[in-house]
Amino acid sequence: MQANACTTIYGIIRQVIDWPWTIVPETTSGEAVCQAPIAIAGDSSMHVHHQWLLVAAIFTLLLPSLVQSQDMLWQQKYNAGKTALEAQQYSAAEKSLSEAMNIATSFGKDDLRYAQTCNELALVYSGEEKYQDAEKFFLRAFESYKRIKGPDDPLIAMEWNNLGGLYELAGKPDSAEPLFLRALAILEKKYGEASAELVVDLNALADYYNGAQRIDDAMKFAKRSMDISVKTWGDDSSRLIGSLKVLSSGYFIQKKYTDAEPLLRRLLVITQKASATNSEDLLWALEAMSEVCAKQGHYNEAEQTILRALAIRKTSLPAETSNLTSQAAARVGAAYLQYYEKMYNLASFYVKAKDKAHFGDAETDLKAVYQGRQYWLGNNDPRLAEVLNSLGELYLLQNRDADALSCLQNALALRGPNNTQNLEGATSMCSMGALYFKQKDYANAEKMYQEALAIRKKIMDNSAPEIASAMIGLAVLDLIQNKLTDAEPLFKQAIAIMNKAPDLNASNLSICLENYARLLEKTDHHTEAIDCITRARELREKLEKDSKTP
Fold first, then answer.
1. Which of 20, 183, 240, 484 has the smallest number of CB atoms closer than 10 Å to its CB?
2. What is the pTM of this model?
């Protein structure tokens, strides 16, 4: 562009004065240079002086056109890069924005175009997981905005938020929190503590604290965001989506599903209206709603919502996965793994609900999930254990004991060193305990339940229902073997744990009460036994009613 502009200027000058200009070939930077000979025979110094004045005047007149052409070229490259970034076409975005960066550098580091280009290029590098490059350009953008706008401008808050989000992605959450708080402080000072300008930042903080399991902090910011959003935009505006997501997530983490449910229903209504512009929010709402319904035993609605979500995800999956770059393959793999995760959720709904009509679908889906995860993660990834455990549980329900044992043993072999993988191992042990119990191999059953209970007690809170589940297995074993004094305290502890959230633990609680009633009958506590049986029946009736909720 600069060479062409220089050549144009040269042509105009030759029309005005007869001057033996030459064009020096392009330099290594790609620029052509207009140059005159040092001396020309026969020219008077005055004549040369007048000619140079005229040349200077012409350059002065035409220079704005040259600058404008550079600005237009920067805008073109910048816009192309932003469009590619929004479509997650990172290679194309990096190419266009790098070209824009080369042009913006010529404007100077105190130019907004330079700061804007640095910011967008950092977002590209973040999407490509090139976190060091992303950090470098976010910091350049921050320094540029700071010189141009001052330290308390909202653009500075934006960069603090961008850096905070980057540090979260890069696994540096402790570095992220102070940046989010600085950004919020800038906006509060600028707009006030009840301004709608704060909502995005409040949601970012709530989301951060949800991820860090700092629930009190998360709920404080989420509720504040929700209050501001409703007062500003009303009850059914699409501007409430972010606030509804972080607030419902906070309740879900706390297992307050009855509080999360109405927020998610509200979110579904809003996102369905706005789905033409952002199907990602609708997808999030459907998947969150299916989990909340499943946790409460509303399996029909859980099934309906997850099927809708799976249909949306399936339409976005690329049909061809060969000949991909490593970056593209990583993104495609992530999309498929998310799809398989939701397919797993649907299959596990059928298993947990003991829905015999869908056992065939559950087996087909679980096998597809196993093969998909195996393809993208490899043969030895611990995440395969989750699928094998569900298959083992399904085969137990179908009395396919050999298949069940094979799946559960393979799942146990995949157990890894971290807590999540150890807990998955405890799930394998509990299912194997149930299998050995069924086969009247009480010694091995007891061993499995005891190991599972020890793992869960070590890792989980003492009030976790998973601990109660292992206790029930041991208690029933003792009851069958007439070890009543060993069984009674286990039954009582399990019932006490599950009574803290009886609606959520209704299935296991009803089983526990029925077996505890048998112990009470054996010890001549008939009235208490009748009370337990009555309560167990009520829980089962409620479970059946809830499972049919549309």
1. 20
2. 0.71
* Six token digits for residue 248: 């419902």
Residue 33, φ and ψ in degrees, nearest 5? -120, 130
Whether 412 and 428 have beta carbons less than 8 Å apart is answered as yes
pLDDT at 18 over 70: no
Which amino acid is located at 284 in the chain? W
**What whole-number distance in Å separates Cα of residue 523 and Cα of residue 519?**
6
- Quote the CA–CA distance of 532 and 511 in Å, as a whole number: 10
d(CA 310, CA 265): 18
Question: What are 100-104's contacts with CB under 8 Å, separation 24+?
Answer: 100/74, 103/70, 103/73, 103/74, 103/77, 104/74, 104/78
208-262, pLDDT tens digit by residue? 999 888 999 999 999 999 999 999 999 989 999 999 999 999 999 998 999 999 9
Q: What is the DSSP string of 202-269?
A: HHHHHHHHHHTT-HHHHHHHHHHHHHHHHHHH-SS-GGGHHHHHHHHHHHHHTT-HHHHHHHHHHHHH
Q: What is the pLDDT of residue 470?
A: 94
Q: Report pLDDT digits (tens) over 40-78.
A: 444 555 555 555 555 555 555 555 555 567 788 999 999
How many angstroms separate the CA atoms of 333 and 313, rounded?
13
Q: Is the distance from CB of 467 to CB of 460 less than 8 angstroms?
A: yes
Q: What are phi and psi of 500, to 5 degrees?
A: -70, -25
CB 258 within 8 A of CB 221: no
Q: How far is CA 478 from the centre of its chain?
A: 44
Average pLDDT over residues 258-283: 86
Provide the token pair at 356: 């015999």
Q: What is the pLDDT of residues 345-398, one digit of tens each?
A: 889 888 988 889 999 999 999 999 999 999 999 998 888 999 999 999 999 999
Domain ranges, ordered by start, for the chain: 2-69, 475-550
CATH code of 475-550, in short, is: 1.25.40
Looking at residue 488, its amino acid is E
The amino acid occupying position 396 is L
Question: Is pLDDT above 60 for 3?
Answer: no
User: Could you give the angle at the alpha carbon of 445 between the alpha carbons of 440 and 447, nearest 5°?
Assistant: 145
Q: How far apart are CA 185 and CA 183, in angstroms?
A: 5
CA distance 72 to 113: 12
User: pLDDT at position 384, please?
Assistant: 93
d(CA 191, CA 196): 9
Query: Is residue 314 classed exposed, middle or buried when 0-12, 13-18 and 19+ CB atoms within 10 A define those classes?
Result: exposed
Identify whether the C-beta of residue 5 lies closer than 8 Å to the C-beta of residue 59: no
Provide the β-strand partners of residue 24: 33
Q: Of the given ranges (329-333, 363-367, 544-548), which has the lowest mean pLDDT?
A: 544-548
Q: How far apart are CA 3 and CA 33, in angstroms?
A: 7
In this prediction, residue 534 has a pLDDT band, given cuts at 50, 70 and 90, of: very high
CA dihedral 257, 258, 259, 265 (to 10 degrees): 90
